[in-house]
């Protein structure tokens, strides 16, 4: 993977010392070595959101006489038996995990794109661990962010994995980086995928986060890889998760289709 | 019904913001990693040699030499006080031929790049201030306003009497199609109205008024086509222009529904 070949600024070692905390500079201070400029260009996706999408989403999701809808919660034992003490609580009716309450939709909780999480699991890395490096580099190229490595969590001999093996890479992108990624997907990558129908309506984790996947061939269409194609003999498929502040998947889908993603198929709920 | 044409091009940003963004992006370039040429150009290849030849390397600090713009801080062929300039091709030379025309000699003879000229942000409709055109003020949201024939309301959003017992948004869609012709492609945002106005004898009603007519506002975006109604005086206007044309009390009731951009 590509690492910085030297520090971008001269390090003032006095400021790194823990002896003088009052000398520490805030991260937004330009003298801090971790300073990163934020508003480097016009963000047209954010402009579209504030000018058009925000008010539309509020109106679409709004219904009259809204009440707070309780989610499914774990059930306490009624205490009719002495054995109920110390007995673990019952799971929610018909489910294993609790769901969130749905609050009334107001101008304060209009759905927003919070971040994009990109996950790349490389199955072949069980046998050829060097492939993880290529996957890491691929994510670094398409996201313009610092990528983290992914390690296996447990021993599963049937799958041929041991705990602690490098098995993939992941990245989380926010703000302008995320908006650039969305625009690249919508304008350069997805329209050129053969037989691309859209994101399936069945996707979603029931709390407003939508995931879809791209195959290794689709990933080659990212301009960062396409313009340097001879270096990229092998690419890796990725899973892209849009984490939104929407309360349900339907709301998240409305937000994403407003940002330009097509959806297909029947809705699950 | 509030019919809007959403912005087509990017927003106009104030000059100060533009300068701030330029400053920030220059800072970003300054703080960027040094170009990892080992990754893009393998050592010992012809491409690497050509790349190396094209670069302009900074001069190293010399003992006893005074540098008026500060002592260079060189790491891996880069002065890290400044942004790194990567030269990927020979800069164009400008020549003048016999006829007196200037020609640019370019190593990469890419006609598509040479032919690329962005369209103007201002259109013919902007120059003539044609309020009937949808191609005016491309960076702003435009709203359809019609002038009331009986002249009681003046300029206002188009409104239609509820024909039968049908949903409000269906009634509004049918009404606007009959008024402005079938060529308009509209997308209704929601079946929920976004505002309720009360009128009494053509004027905005006070709370205690009797015989009020209620006006529910349905939001829609125009996607294609145009509003074509020969008998109706209409205009596509921005928020500021609506404020000038409309009655003050009426604008106060609808101002929060209109986009600033």
Automatic annotation (TrEMBL), chain A:
UniProt name for this protein: Large ribosomal subunit protein uL5m
Family statement drawn from the similarity comment of this UniProt entry: Belongs to the universal ribosomal protein uL5 family.
GO biological process: translation
InterPro entries xref list: Ribosomal_uL5 (IPR002132), Ribosomal_uL5_C (IPR031309), Ribosomal_uL5_dom_sf (IPR022803), Ribosomal_uL5_N (IPR031310)
Keywords: Ribonucleoprotein, Ribosomal protein
Start and end residues of each Large ribosomal subunit protein uL5 C-terminal domain: 166-263
Top-level division of the source organism's lineage: Eukaryota
MF-aspect GO terms: structural constituent of ribosome
Organism, as annotated: Babjeviella inositovora NRRL Y-12698
GO cellular component, one term: ribosome
Automatic annotation (TrEMBL), chain B:
InterPro entries membership: Ribosomal_mL46 (IPR040008), Ribosomal_mL46_N (IPR021757), Ribosomal_mL46_NUDIX (IPR033650)
Protein name: Large ribosomal subunit protein mL46
The entry's keywords: Mitochondrion, Ribonucleoprotein, Ribosomal protein, Transit peptide
Location of this chain's protein in the cell: Mitochondrion
One GO CC term, this protein: mitochondrial large ribosomal subunit
Pfam families documented for this protein: MRP-L46
Major localisation: mitochondrion
Positions of the Large ribosomal subunit protein mL46 N-terminal domain: 1-126
Family assignment from sequence similarity: Belongs to the mitochondrion-specific ribosomal protein mL46 family.
Gene3D superfamilies associated with the record: Nucleoside Triphosphate Pyrophosphohydrolase
GO molecular function, one term: structural constituent of ribosome
Key word Mitochondrion present: yes
């Amino acid at each position: 993977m590509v690492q910085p070949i030297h520090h971008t600024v001269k390090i003032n070692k006095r400021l790194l010392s823990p002896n003088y905390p009052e000398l520490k500079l805030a991260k937004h201070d330009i003298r801090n070595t971790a300073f990163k400029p934020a508003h480097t260009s016009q963000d047209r996706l954010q402009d579209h959101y504030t000018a058009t999408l925000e008010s539309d989403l509020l109106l679409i999701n709004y219904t009259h006489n809204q009440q707070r809808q309780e989610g499914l919660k774990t059930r306490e034992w009624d205490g009719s038996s002495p054995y109920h003490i110390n007995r673990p609580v019952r799971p929610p009716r018909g489910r294993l995990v609790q769901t969130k309450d749905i609050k009334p939709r107001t101008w304060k909780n209009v759905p927003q794109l919070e971040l994009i999480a990109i996950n790349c699991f490389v199955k072949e890395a069980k046998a050829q661990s060097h492939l993880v490096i290529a996957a890491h580099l691929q994510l670094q190229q398409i996201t313009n962010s610092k990528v983290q490595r992914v390690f296996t969590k447990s021993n599963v001999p049937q799958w041929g994995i041991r705990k602690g093996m490098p098995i993939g890479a992941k990245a989380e992108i926010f703000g302008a980086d995320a908006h650039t990624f969305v625009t690249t997907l919508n304008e350069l990558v997805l329209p050129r995928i053969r037989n691309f129908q859209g994101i399936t309506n069945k996707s979603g984790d029931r709390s407003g986060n939508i995931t879809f996947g791209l195959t290794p061939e689709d990933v080659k269409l990212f301009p960062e890889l396409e313009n340097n194609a001879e270096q990229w003999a092998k690419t890796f498929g990725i899973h892209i998760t849009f984490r939104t502040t929407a309360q349900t998947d339907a709301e998240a889908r409305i937000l994403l289709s407003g940002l330009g993603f097509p959806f297909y198929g029947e809705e699950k709920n | 019904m509030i019919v809007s044409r959403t912005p087509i091009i990017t927003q106009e940003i104030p000059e100060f913001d533009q300068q701030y963004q330029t400053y920030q992006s220059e800072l970003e370039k300054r703080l960027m990693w040094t170009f990892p040429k080992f990754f893009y150009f393998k050592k010992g290849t012809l491409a690497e040699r050509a790349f190396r030849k094209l670069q302009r390397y900074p001069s190293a600090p010399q003992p006893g030499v005074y540098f008026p713009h500060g002592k260079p801080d060189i790491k891996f062929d880069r002065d890290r006080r400044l942004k790194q300039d990567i030269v990927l091709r020979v800069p164009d030379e400008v020549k003048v031929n016999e006829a007196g025309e200037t020609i640019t000699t370019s190593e990469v003879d890419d006609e598509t790049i040479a032919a690329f000229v962005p369209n103007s942000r201002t259109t013919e409709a902007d120059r003539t201030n044609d309020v009937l055109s949808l191609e005016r003020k491309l960076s702003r949201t435009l709203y359809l306003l019609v002038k009331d024939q009986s002249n009681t309301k003046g300029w206002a959003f188009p409104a239609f009497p509820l024909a039968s017992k049908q949903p409000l948004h269906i009634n509004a869609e049918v009404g606007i199609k009959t008024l402005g012709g079938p060529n308009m492609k509209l997308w209704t945002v929601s079946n929920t109205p976004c505002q309720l106005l009360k009128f009494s004898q053509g004027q905005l009603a006070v709370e205690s008024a009797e015989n009020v007519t209620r006006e529910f506002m349905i939001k829609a975006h125009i996607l294609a086509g145009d509003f074509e109604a020969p008998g109706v005086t209409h205009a596509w206007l921005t928020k500021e222009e609506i404020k000038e044309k409309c009655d003050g009390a009426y604008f106060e009731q609808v101002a929060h529904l209109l986009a600033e951009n």
